[in-house]
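Q: Convert this sequence to structure tokens.
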Amino acid sequence: MGNQAQIRKGSTAMSTSTRNFPNRLGIDTNVYLGSAELAAVCALMGRIPTPAEYLEQVQAVNAKAADVYRYMNFDQIREFSEVADTVAV
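A:
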């Protein structure tokens, strides 16, 4: 959800936002903050999963973690390193 989005009064939602306070996403709403992985599982299931359901669903991501989280190791990406090596300190 975008930073200005609002949900229906009394709804429950999962958000990857870094901020949460009463009525942030709507009047009388319940907003839970979580990771991108949890947001994806919630979208697939249409609801917030139990811990067991989450762990089952996220196995596919964990199996490909080296590729999925590659962007977090940008210093190890050849294309990035080649450009970074050309920048003077």
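The chain has four helices and two strands.
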